[in-house]
Structures are given as C-alpha cells and as structure tokens.
Amino acid sequence: MSFRLLPKDVRFFDLFTRDGENLHAAAHALYELVSNYDRLDERVTEIQRLEKVGDEIDRDITRRLEDAFVTPFDREDIHELTVRLDDVVDGIQATAETFVIYGIERPTEAAVELSRILAAQSVELLAALRKLEGLKDMDSHLEMVHELEHEADGLSRAAVAQLFRDGSEPLEVIKWRDLYRELENTIDAAEDAAEAIERMFHKAT
Questions:
Q1: Which letter, b or e, does each residue of 16-32 get, where b requires 16 or more Cβ atoms within 10 Å of its Cβ?
Q2: Rounded-to-integer distance, Cα 11 and Cα 133, Å
Q3: Contact, 94 vs 26, CB < 8 A?
Q4: Res 16: pLDDT
Q5: Rounded to an integer, what distance in angstroms lies between the CA atom of residue 203 and that of residue 2?
Q6: What residues contact 85, with CB distance under 8 A and at least 6 apart?
Q7: Is the Cβ–Cβ distance between 31 and 118 less than 8 Å?
Q8: Is the per-residue pLDDT at 72 higher than 50?
Q9: Is the pTM here over 0.90, yes or no?
Q10: How confident is the model at residue 5, as a pLDDT?
Q11: Which of 13, 33, 66, 101 has the smallest CB count inside 10 Å?
Q12: Per-residue b/e over 194-204, b at no fewer than 16 CB within 10 Å?
C-alpha cells in the first residue's frame, strides 16, 4: 500500500478537536434539556452560546485555510468537514429552540431517545477527530456513528406512526412530526460529518 507523509500542521488538528468538543458539549446540552426538561430558557441560551463558539472555530479554520501554504488534507475536504460539523450544531440549536417555540409541555420517550442517540454520536465523532492526526483506530468510532443513525431511523419512523395511531390533535401531530424531523436531520448531519472524516482518512492513507 502506498502512502504519502502528511505535513503536520498542529493548528488544524487542534481546531478539529475544538470543533468536536464544542459539538459534543452542544449535543449533551440538548440531551440534558430534553431528559430533564427544566430551566428551558437557561438551557437554550447555553446551546445558543455553544453555536456561536462553533461559528468562531469555523472562522478560525477558514482563516487558516486562507493563510496556509500547505494543509494536512485537501482544502476542499477540510472545508467540507467544517461545514458538516457546523450543520450538526446548527441542528442542535434549531431543535432546542423548537421545543420552546412550540410550547412543548413534556418530551416523548422517543424524543429523549433520539437526543440520546445524537449525544452518543457526538462522543464517537469527537473520538475520531482526536485520532485524525495519527490516522489510526478511527474505524470503530465512525462505524458506530452510522449504526446509531440507522437506529434513529427506525425509532423516528415508529414515533411518527405512533402519532397517527394515537389519534392526537392535528396541531400536536404537526408539532411532534416537525420535532422528530429536526432531530432526525441533525442525526443525519452527524453521519454526514462522519463520512467527511472517512473521505479525509481514505485519501490520506
């Protein structure tokens, strides 16, 4: 197998890790919001703060891309990863805000479970990002992100079907269908981020 020696720009790897840590914090903040369902304004404000932190990290990566003569991965791949990680945090913020905007009185068990799955994905993404510099032992983390997404697919479909079987009020059906879709889209975004990492890994080895 042929390989090329990557120039080690520690600044990029540090930023990837910071981005992953911020995503991890936001995903767990959402899980805490949904599972505890108290102090909503305070919890949403914290998630909004983390989203802004993520935006600043993304800007730092973009500036490094503009200034760097040599980058550790293709510029397009670095940009793609940055966008995908940002999509996850944006989805987390949108989900948290939707709970408040829709005046949800109590989360369903499915919503709690979907937020748990997203938090679990964030653990695996962060672990993979921390190993990106060494390009070793990443497969299990990325595979788990995919497995969690498949689990969420089935759970989300069952939850939406349950809405109609229960004969819920039409407005409640709309609210929860939107929330399940928001959660599922964010979980899908986490899988997209894993796929971006995989592409970087395969190109570099």
A1: bbbbbbbbbbbbbbbbb
A2: 11
A3: no
A4: 96
A5: 11
A6: 19, 20, 23, 54, 58, 125, 193
A7: yes
A8: yes
A9: yes
A10: 43
A11: 66
A12: bbbbbbbbeeb
Chain centre to alpha carbon of residue 155 = 18
Q: In whole angstroms, how far apart are CA 26 and each of 41, 129, 161? A: 15, 16, 29
Which three-class secondary structure string do you get for 40-80? HHHHHHHHHHHHHHHHHHHHHHHHHHHHCCCCCCCHHHHHH
Dihedral of alpha carbons 68, 72, 77, 79, sign: negative
pLDDT at 47 over 60: yes
- DSSP letter for 135, please: T
pLDDT of residue 66: 84
Hey, what are 178's tokens? 């939107």
Q: Residue ranges per domain, the chain?
A: 10-204
CATH fold of 10-204, please? Methane Monooxygenase Hydroxylase; Chain G, domain 1 (1.20.58)
pLDDT per residue over 95-140, tens digit each? 999 999 999 999 999 999 999 999 999 999 999 999 998 888 899 9
Nearest Cα to 139, choosing from 205, 58, 72?
205
Model confidence at 6: pLDDT above 90: no
Nearest partner of 25 among 128, 145, 122, judged by Cα? 122
